[in-house]
Sequence to fold (278 residues):
Amino acid sequence: MITASTRLAGVIGDPVRHSLSPAIHNAAFRELGLDWVYLAFPVPAGAAPEALAAMRTLGMAGLSVTMPHKADVIPALDELSPTAVAVGAVNCVYRRGALLVGENTDGAGFLDALRFDEGFDPAGARCVVIGAGGAARAVILALAQAGAADIAVVNRTPARGIKAAKLAGARGRAGTPEDLLRAQVVVNATPVGMAGPYAAAMPVDEDFLRSDQLVVDLVYRPARTPLLVAARQRGAVPVNGLGTLIHQAAHAFRLWTALDPPLEAMSAAALGALGGDD
Fold:
């Protein structure tokens, strides 16, 4: 029941009507009996500062941020976490008293998905990250902090790949598709394979995939992207982006409520909202 005391959280993006975040967070609120509600707000590109001003005025308790606003919200915030500064992108805004603080939970969510869902620790692993955008940068930094031995960044614009690889320090470098032949972990952090204009595309040639690899696609809709289908055919372990989505939401939930997130309820809600999507 919505009351006069109900606290409001939400997500801004464009498009955003496809988002699973309302299902995930509202399930968490129900599970813990919290008088909170989470809504999706379509906010066009360029209007992120106005959305943050509305968050202040309306007293919203928390905000998720997705494309195309992850960088645009930064000037409207009072503080940034060290991770958000390093990555240059914010996916979560929370309150610290009267201040609005920007955080990036994508990398932490990615690591939790590997460790808790797949039972894989990337410490000492040779990794390839495809892409150099906000999601890729979060993954690169997280892998470096987790102790990955080598992180090769493959990007169609080499200069951006070199810049992103610097987040990993001495263990990061610009890579080529041939680096996949030696990688233990392959991460697609681009929209290639996502439902829509990229749905039938592959981010790399499937001939570079091997049976002893963990292949992660941060895309979660469809659940089986062309990359993951090819990985399974090669005998690799395919992992879509749903686990990362759920775990990054769990970190945001903890920042907003100071409570441990009910992961099982959040996961069940995400799967239910996806329905028969594949």
Observations:
- The mean pLDDT is 96.
